[in-house]
Amino acid sequence: MVISPMTFFVVVGLLLLVLVVANLWWRRESRRRSLPCPTWLAGFLEGSLMDWVLGTQTTLDRIGLRPGQRVLEVGPGPGRLLIPAAHRVLPGGEVIGLDIQPGMLERLKTRAAQAGVSNLTAIQGDATQPHFPPDSFDVIYFCTVLGEIPNREAALRECYAALKPNGILSVTEIFPDPHYQSRATVKRLAEAAGFRPEVIYGHWYFFTANFAKA
Ligand SMILES: C[S@@+](CC[C@H](N)C(=O)[O-])C[C@H]1O[C@@H](n2cnc3c(N)ncnc32)[C@H](O)[C@@H]1O
Predict the structure, then answer these.
(1) Ligand 1 centroid vs 38 CA: distance in angstroms?
(2) pLDDT digits (tens, 9 = 90+) for 31-59
(3) Is the CB of 126 under 6 A from ligand 1?
(4) If you measure from the C-alpha of residue 77 to the centroid of ligand 1, how many angstroms do you get, rounded to a whole number?
(5) Total structural domains in the chain?
(6) Ligand 1 atom 8, closest CA
(7) Does the C-beta of 144 come closer than 6 Å to ligand 1?
C-alpha cells in the first residue's frame, strides 16, 4: 500500500495532537489527584541513552553531592539519578529513595543490586506525609517529580522539616515533561515553604534550582 505525502502528514499531525492533548489533560488532572508516571514507563528512564538525553550526570553535578552526605530523593522511579548518587556520597554517605509506587521501588531495588550499591534504601510513601524525623538529611532533591504531586506545598513543607539546618533542597525540571514546573513556580513554592534561594543552573527547558533551609 502506498501512502500519499498528504496522508502521511495528516496522520503524523493527528498523532502529535493526541500526544499534546493527553499531556495537557495529565498535567491538569495531576493538580487535583495523584496520577504518577506509570511503572510501565520506567524503561524510558533507564539506560545510557536516556542518561545522555536527560542529563543525569549534569543534574547530579548541579545538586552538588559530596562524600559522607545523607541524601533523600523524592520520586526516584527506577533510580536513574539515585543509583549514581549512591556512588557519589561514598565513603560514609547514604541515599534514600521515597516513592509512592511499589512497582518503581521494586525496579529501583533490582537495579541497585545489579549495580552493587549497598548504601541505598527504598521507602514507599507519599511525599506529602511525614516519614522522617526532623533534621535527617543534608540534601533532598526532586527531578521531574514536583508537578506530579497534587499538594506540592505540603511536600516541600515535609522536606523543610526533614532537612538539617542549612541543608539543600534541589529541584530539577525538564521540558517537555507533562508536569514541568517553571523556575518562577519552583521559587515561589520553595520560598513559601521557608527556603532561601541559593542558585539556579541551566536554561528554562532544563534547570536545577537549589535552595537552603533558612
Ligand atoms: C517522572 S518519574 C521521575 C523519576 C526520577 N526522578 C527521574 O528523574 O528519573 C516521577 C516519580 O515520582 C513518583 N511520585 C509521584 N508522586 C509522588 C509522591 N506524592 N510521593 C512520592 N513519589 C511520587 C512516581 O511514582 C515516579 O516514580
Answers:
(1) 9
(2) 887 788 889 888 889 989 999 999 999 99
(3) yes
(4) 5
(5) 1
(6) 143
(7) yes
Residue 167 lies in a domain: yes
CATH of the domain at 114: 3.40.50.150
Q: Is residue 12 part of a domain?
A: no
| Residue 1 in this model has a pLDDT that exceeds 80 | no
40 vs 195, which has greater pLDDT?
Answer: 195
Cross-strand pairs, 200 = 209
pLDDT in tens, 98-139: 999 999 999 999 999 999 999 999 999 999 999 999 999 999
Does some domain include residue 204?
Answer: yes
pLDDT of residue 28: 82
What is the extent of the structural domain holding 105?
Answer: 31-213
In a domain, 3, yes or no: no
Please tell me the distance from the alpha carbon of residue 96 to that of residue 70, in angstroms, as a whole number. 8
Mutual orientation of helices 152-162 and 183-192 as an angle, nearest 10°? 60
Joined together, the cell numbers standing for residue 128 give 506529602
